[in-house]
Amino acid sequence: MRILITNDDGINAPGLKTLETIAHEIAGPDGEVWTVAPAFEQSGVGHCISYAHPTMISELGPRRWAAEGSPADCVLAGLHDILPDLPDLVLSGVNRGNNAGENAAYSGTVGGAMEGALQGVRSIALSQFLGHGTTGLTDMFESARVHGAAVVRRLLDHAPWDEGAEYALFYNVNFPPVSAAETKAPRIGRQGRRPTSGFGIEGQISPTGRRFLWVRGAQQAVECGAGTDVTANLAGHISITPMRADLTAHDRLTALEEAFAG
After folding, report:
1. 116-168 tens-digit pLDDT
2. Which is nearest to 179 in space by CA: 238, 137, 233?
3. Residue 157's Cα: distance from chain center in Å?
4. Which N-terminal residues, if any, form the signal peptide (predicted)?
5. Is 130 part of any domain?
6. Which residues does the annotation place in the binding site for a divalent metal cation?
7. Whether this model's pTM surpasses 0.90
8. In-domain check, residue 214
């Protein structure tokens, strides 16, 4: 099996090393794992692509490349320039922090998997929820490292993929903020929305008198209700959410047609 991996935390991120371990276990001794990851951190860029300027790429070693671009750029570079043939799987992550709930809308990790799906390749985003249960661990990615390969293999062997669909499925996996031993079985859930204000802005004045804005995050350990990814993670479960790049609100098409009828 040939696997392309990327992330949004950057080529030197510890979560990428965890993903490499997962990918090599899935690919097997005769498989190939190719890494194309951002040269610098690209957290929060979503499904951004560098459409208006070129992307410089550098070969760092065998099957290992860094690109001065987003995770989606890295996937495009891997599929259309670097790899000799299309991979069988795209894995994006393991992100440092959860991409459950509303975070998925901003996530470069999810954006990398989304681009893989749009290019017709099976794709999975993987993220590690951080919290009080991970602060004392030697390896904060322990849950993902120990359970990641089994989850990916289960998705590959048993999950629907809808190959040939207009917008193919991809999967968003979040590992809970607990140790590997405390991690509970996967739960399938919808993308939640934390009942908080979400991201905000905090302004600061620099020593030179210039004004800068920092994006401020919100409380993460907030449940979103039954059946959601966040609630599953906070209960110690791995969450798996099927996703598509299709942003259409299908449940409102008829109502909108009626609003414009006549």
Report:
1. 999 999 999 999 999 999 999 999 999 999 999 999 999 999 999 998 899 99
2. 137
3. 20
4. none
5. yes
6. 8-9, 43, 95
7. yes
8. no
Q: 206 in a domain, yes or no?
A: no
Q: Is residue 7 part of a domain?
A: yes
Q: Which domain holds residue 157?
A: 2-194+222-259
Q: What is the pLDDT of residues 237-262, one digit of tens each?
A: 999 999 999 999 999 999 999 999 97
Q: Tokens standing for 262? A: 């006549």
Indicate the annotated binding residues: 8-9, 43, 95
Cβ neighbour number for residue 1 with a 10 Å cutoff: 14
The number of folded domains in the chain is 1
Residue 239 pairs in a beta bridge with: 174, 187
CATH number of the domain to which 59 belongs: 3.40.1210.10
- Tell which residue, 110, 97, 89, 120, has the closest CA to residue 24: 89
Which residue in the block uniquely carries the two structure tokens 């998925």?
A: 104
Spatial separation of the C-alpha atoms in residues 46 and 105, rounded to whole Å: 7
- The tens digit of pLDDT for each residue in 40-53 reads 999 999 999 999 99
Determine contact, residues 115/15, Cβ cutoff 8 Å: no
